[in-house]
C-alpha cells in the first residue's frame, strides 16, 4: 500500500497469520473507500497537524470454540452494529497463527462523513452561555467559547459500552454454536472476584519475553500468576476442611471423634517407604501437634472454630495481597511510561530544532521514537489531568513498601497453608476411622 502523503510503499503481504481482512462502510461512504489504500490515504490527506490521531484501534480475542466462519460472522455483526451503523468506516483483520490466540484488529475512522461522502469536522466552536441563554462577552470584542466534538465517538463511556457489546455478541455466537456463554467484560473486582488480573504486556514486551528477555511487566505477571496459584490452593484446602469440621462438630456428642482418637489414628496412617518420605511424615506430625497445642484444641467444635477463624484470616490476607498487587501493576505501568517519555524526549527536542525543509525526512527516520514519545506524553498528560501528580520517585517508594508488606502477607499465607496441611492429616485419620467402623462385623446376636 502506497502512502500518498510521503510517497512510501508499505508491503504487508509477508505479515503472517492474517486469515481475513475486510472493510465495512456506512451507506453514504464513497464506494472507492472499499479500497484500503484509498480509504487511509484520504484519512491522511484531510488531517493537517503532525500529531493528529488518524484512527482508533480496537483489539479483541476471538473464542477458540468457534470455527473460522463463525468468528468472521461474529466480527461482522459486532462491527456493523457498533461502528458502521453509527457512521464510522471500519477496517478489520482477523489474525490466527495457530498458536491458540485468534484475535481481531479493528481500525475505525474518527471523522464523520457528510451525506455527500466528504469528510466532516471532528469538532466545532460552541459559545458559552449565561443563565439566561445569552452569549458571554470575552472582554476583547468577542464571545467566550469552547470546542465540542461533532460526534459522541470519543466519549470515555464508549469503552464500557463497546466492551459490553462485544461480550454480548460473543456469548450469542457461542450459544448459537452450542457452547456455554462464558464471556464477561467486567473486571474481577467488579464481579467480586479477588483474583489478581495480569497486566497487558504490549507488543514490545511480548516480543522480548518470547526471545527469553525478562521484562518488568513480565516479572509482574509471573508474580501475579504465583500469587493466584497460592490463593487458589489455600482456598480449596480451607473450604474442604471447613465443611468437614462443621459436619463433624454438628454430630451428637457420642458420635464425634475425639482429638485423642484422631491423633492416634493419624499416627497409624500408612508410612512412606523412602527416607525422605518418613522425614516429611514426622515433620507433618510435629506440625500437627504444635498446631493443636498452640491453639488449645481438644474437641471437634474447637477445631471447627479455629478453621473458621483461619477462613476469616485468609480473606483478610487475600484482600491485602490482591489490593497490593493491583496497585503495584498500576505504579509499574506509570514508571515504564515515565522512562519511555525520558528515553525519547531528546528525539522530540531535536525535531523542534530541525529546519522545515528537513523536518519530514527526520520524522520518517525517527517515526518509531516519536510515536513512542507521543504515546508516553499523552499517557502522562491524561494522568496529570485526572489530578495525579507525576512523581516517579514516590511511585517507586510506594512499590517498594507495597512489595515488602505483600511479602509479609504472603509468608503468613504460606504458614497458614502448612497448618492446613497438618489438619488434613486429622481428616484423613477421621476417614480411616469411619472406614474401620463400617467394616466391623456386626453382632447378629445368638443363633436360635
From TrEMBL:
The keyword GTP-binding does not apply. It comes from the Bacteria. GO terms for molecular function: transferase activity. Pfam families: MobA_MobL. InterPro entries: MobA_MobL. Residues 300-334 form a coiled coil. Residues 1-211 form the MobA/MobL protein domain. Keywords: Coiled coil, Conjugation, Transferase. Transmembrane segments: none annotated. Belongs to the MobA/MobL family. This is DNA strand transferase. It comes from Dorea longicatena.
